């Protein structure tokens, strides 16, 4: 039975996700054996999903870098404040000692 490319393209997402019926799967298999255009469409679906997964991984990595940067920034700020307080205390002790 000859099935149009439009019908096969409608079935391709279900075929790719492996959720179509066995009969639909057979139709798609038979069609893509003879139709290069639909076969390429199926192959492009896997490339789009791979790129999307890669982008999600990169986004997660950037979120982790951002979290670390913020944490390190706050840590550096805290250390700077602590060092400033210590220096002020030491200087005030020296000033008191010299004034006696």
UniProtKB/TrEMBL annotation:
The keyword Transmembrane helix applies. Residues 5-38 form the Putative zinc-finger domain. InterPro entries: Znf_put (IPR027383). The chain crosses the membrane at residues 77-97. It comes from the Bacteria. The keyword Transmembrane helix applies. Keywords: Membrane, Transmembrane, Transmembrane helix. This is Zf-HC2 domain-containing protein.
